Amino acid sequence: MKLFQYAAMATLICVFSSVLAAQADIEVLSPTGTARTNGETINHGKTSNGTLINYTVRIQNVGNADLDLLAPVVAGGGYKSVQVNMSNVPGAQTLTPTNFVEFDVDINPDKDSNWSFQITITSDDSADPSFVLKFKGTEGKPEDDDDDCSTSEGSGTSMLILLGILSAGVVATRLRNSRA
Question: What is the pTM (predicted TM-score) of this model?
Answer without folding.
Answer: 0.66
